[in-house]
Amino acid sequence: MKGVAAEIIPDFPDSLTPTVIMYKDKECIKKVQGLAEWGGSRVSADSVEWLLAELGVVLD
């Protein structure tokens, strides 16, 4: 999904984008919100892969 955060979810702050919400068996297991959790302004595909591996979403 792509769009202005506050237009998609009313009052959703831009500071929490990007946000990824991970579910398992219909239960929210983790929310990763804001650029800092993804590696800051230097976020890369490698840092995203590392974080998802740490969370057990992707396997080595």
Automatic annotation (TrEMBL):
InterPro entries: Phosducin-like_chap/apop_reg, Thioredoxin-like_sf. GO terms for cellular component: cytoplasm. One of its GO terms (biological process) is protein folding. Signal peptide: none annotated. Belongs to the phosducin family. This is Pdcl3 protein.
